[in-house]
Prior knowledge:
TetR family transcriptional regulator (chains A, B), disordered C terminus
Amino acid sequence: xxxxxxxxxxxxxxxxxxxxxxxxxxxxxxxxxxxxxxxxxxxxxxxxxxxxxxxxxxxxxxxxxxxxxxxxxxxxxxxxxxxxxxxxxxxxxxxxxxxxxxxxxxxxxxxxxxxxxxxxxxxxxxxxxxxxxxxxxxxxxxxxxxxxxxxxxxxxxxxxxxxxxxxxxxxxxxxxxxxxxxxxxxxxxxxxxxxxxxxxxxxxxxxxxxx
Amino acid sequence: xxxxxxxxxxxxxxxxxxxxxxxxxxxxxxxxxxxxxxxxxxxxxxxxxxxxxxxxxxxxxxxxxxxxxxxxxxxxxxxxxxxxxxxxxxxxxxxxxxxxxxxxxxxxxxxxxxxxxxxxxxxxxxxxxxxxxxxxxxxxxxxxxxxxxxxxxxxxxxxxxxxxxxxxxxxxxxxxxxxxxxxxxxxxxxxxxxxxxxxxxxxxxxxxxxx
DNA sequence: CGCTAATCTAGAACAAGTTTCAGCCTCGTC
DNA sequence: GACGAGGCTGAAACTTGTTCTAGATTAGCG
Lengths: 211, 211
């Protein structure tokens, strides 16, 4: 019942330097193990040992394996967002640009399919106790897509389209990771769903369809 | 290395009557436990005891908890498909009919949210070893949607749209189950993605756009 | 520097999914 | 009706996520 200050979340306690370093080591170990063997290879004891931290400490930083992997995803997504921003997509329409961006992200994931597996499986398996963290990931993804669309003040309709695109993105990734869809198929699905953007664009009077 | 004939899958061994009964008892116990407490409440020992079967036998019928829950979903989906067929959707366009059908299915799931949780979580968490079973579920879902569209010979484009709808359906369910989206939001997402159907309809020369 | 509370460590312990095994039972066959 | 193969049972064992505890360390503070 004491007002404990766990090193969780965002602004609970500022985290000392050593704590920040520990957290970073843990995330690094997690990503490394995940890259090697996917979700199953990320074993809490191994993560602890591999990052030079006691099991109890690992659990203090990340209250479950799912929390850990979702945090790993936040970490990776952040890097990806920065990378993507460096070379913005070149397509003419918003739909093309979003599709191009997502395909670029997809190719990045293909380079580490096991890591992708671990992160995506954790994300979709997460229950209510991880909602805040999953929500953060979702917001990051939304930001990436809106970036690609070149919007900063989207209409509700456009937000709906973006949500649907995210749904498709996650689910398509899963079907690919579990070997039920080919890379080509994922590409098609992404391109298909991105057409929704044009649909809402015509309804949104922001960018007049001067053609 | 012996050519064992496990009571798995479709056509391995015809399954005797008692075996069929066992299988049914197991699925029933699974659904019941799931309906009570969701994914976590489906504990293999409990399923075994509750269906009057030894743990080893349970594992002979369903090689993992995920297999069991995916099979449970197949079972439930089949029932749902029959129910839905009885009263076909009444909307004018294919998009409306699909949206209506999915919303009807969604309301059915809302009646047993814990069961929905267990099934959907299992479905998205399934790895490659469950691919055939997950694929069956996917085909069942596709059949339901095509039914609602009133198609029996869809174009590749329409199949893409259906796949995207399925993606959205699964992912939207997950966000709802984990409390990150409201029922209203799921409705909007479904309606949004269903607009894709109209998009492909105009491109498909089957139903001439006689206005 | 010395104190106190919080944090960290090592390790045991627990929970639930999964595997294994010895022995009994059932089914199809002769 | 006896036989043999495979299926079923009961129980123990193993794995990995998670929790708990006692003692050592560390951080912040007077």
